[in-house]
Amino acid sequence: MNAEMVRATLADRKTQTRRVVTGKAQWVTDLIHNLDSISPKQICPYGKPGDRLWVRESFFLDSEVDILFCADSSYDLKQIVPEDYEYRGLSEGVTVPSIHAPRWASRTTLEITDIRVERVRNITVQDATCEGIVDCEMPTHALESSSHHRVRVLSKFQLLWDSINAKRKDKKGNLLPYAWADNPFVWVVEFRRIKS
C-alpha cells in the first residue's frame, strides 16, 4: 500500500480495496456471466471472509535494527534474526519499498469481511470513502448533500485507480485494459483491521 492508504487503514478509514479480475478470458467470462450461481466469496484469489491479510508498506531499517515505517514515521522494534535482516540483501540504512516488504516487517493484519465482483466505475461515494478517499474541502456534516462532494470523491478515486492501474502492461509490453476508462471488473475486498 502507498503511504496515504496505510495511514487511512491505520485510522480505520480504509476498509475496502479493489483489484482487477484477471485470468484466462474464458474463466473471467464464466465468472461474470454466472455470478448468480457462483459466489465470488468461494473463488476470489485474495481469500474468503474470515481469512487474514498482512499489509506491505515501505520501511527503513536503522542501525539499531528498528523499523521506521515511512507512512507515519513510527518505530517498531522487531526481534529480527540475522537471516531475516539479510532479506533480499537488506542492510541498515536502506529504505525497503512496499512491494519488497517481507512478512516479518508487517505491523498491520486485516480480516476479510466480504467479497464481491463489480465494474470499477460502479463504485459509490460511500465505497470510495471506504477506500480511504477523503474530501477535505467541506465540513463533515455536509458531505452527503453535495453533488460537488460526490464529483470530488469519485474523481480522487479515479486518479488513484489510474495511478496504479492505467499503465500496467503484460509481459510483451502491451497496455492492459485496466484503466478507469476501460471499466474492468474488479474484486471488491472488504476488511477490518485486527487490533493487537
Topology of this structure?
Layout: H1 3-10, E1 16-20, H2 25-33, H3 40-43, E2 52-54, E3 59-61, E4 66-69, E5 74-77, H4 82-85, E6 95-96, E7 109-119, H5 125-130, H6 147-165, E8 185-194
Antiparallel strand pairs: 1-8, 2-7, 3-4, 3-6, 4-5, 7-8
Question: Could you characterize what this model shows?
Answer:
The chain is of the alpha+beta class. It has 2 domains: 140 residues, Hypothetical protein (Archaeosine Trna-guanine Transglycosylase, Chain: A, domain 4); 47 residues, no CATH class. Helices cover 26% and strands 21% of the residues. It is built from 6 helices and 8 strands, in the order αβααββββαββααβ. The strands form 2 sheets. A 4-stranded antiparallel beta sheet has the order 1-8-7-2. Strands 5-4-3-6 form a 4-stranded antiparallel beta sheet, with no helix packed on it. The radius of gyration is 19 Å and the shape is globular.
